Amino acid sequence: MPNHKSAEKRVRQSAVRRLRNRYQLSTCRAAIKKLKKTTNKQEALSLLPKIYGMLDKLAKRRVIHKNKSANLKSKITRWVNAMPNA
Questions:
Q1: CA R_g for the chain
Q2: Residue-by-residue pLDDT tens, the chain, 86 positions
Q3: Residue 34: which of 67, 69, 80, 71 has the closest Cα?
Q4: Domain holding 65: CATH number?
Q5: Domains of the chain: total
Q6: Which residue range is the domain that position 44 belongs to?
Q7: Rounded to whole angstroms, how far apart are CA atoms 62 and 1?
């Protein structure tokens, strides 16, 4: 239990931020899963910039490490490039 007013505020802020971070991370993971489910290369290419932005934002806010963001971007790019043109 916090003993100071400022510590009480930090607990409240941390709770709100934790929920926001979890929501944004799960939204990004869902978008990556949607990209991997798609079979249409054009649709996948249109999803890429959106996912890149999500990952960059998560890395900028230190929700995930910047190297993890780079690795994920690399993986999904290779995934999309390996898709057959249809």
A1: 17
A2: 889 999 999 999 999 999 999 999 999 999 999 999 999 999 999 999 999 999 999 999 999 999 999 999 999 999 999 999 86
A3: 80
A4: 1.20.58.110
A5: 1
A6: 5-81
A7: 27
